[in-house]
Write a structure and sequence with these properties.
Layout lengths: L104
Amino acid sequence: MISDEIFRGRYRNSYEKPEAIRARRNYPFHNRSAYRGSRLQKGHRIMVQVQSTWFPLYDRNPQKFVPNIFEAKESDYQKATEKIYRSQKYPSRVEISVPGGATH
């Protein structure tokens, strides 16, 4: 692993005003990684994981919008499914900057 960052979807539009994510709806996410500085050899591959929780490495995610996840009740915890769309209507992509200013 060369980077491990958490970006909570509730902050996708603003860190000051968290918003719930509604089931069965598409939302655009734009996240810039703070990580810089790996050198990958030719032919190596990059994997990006999207998941709703990383417990026990990080705090539990109740999968339900609550004002403060650290005060979530047991009844707030529920099952969640994430989908990444990759179609003309809902395109997804990862951009990577390389030395020389090019973006791939």
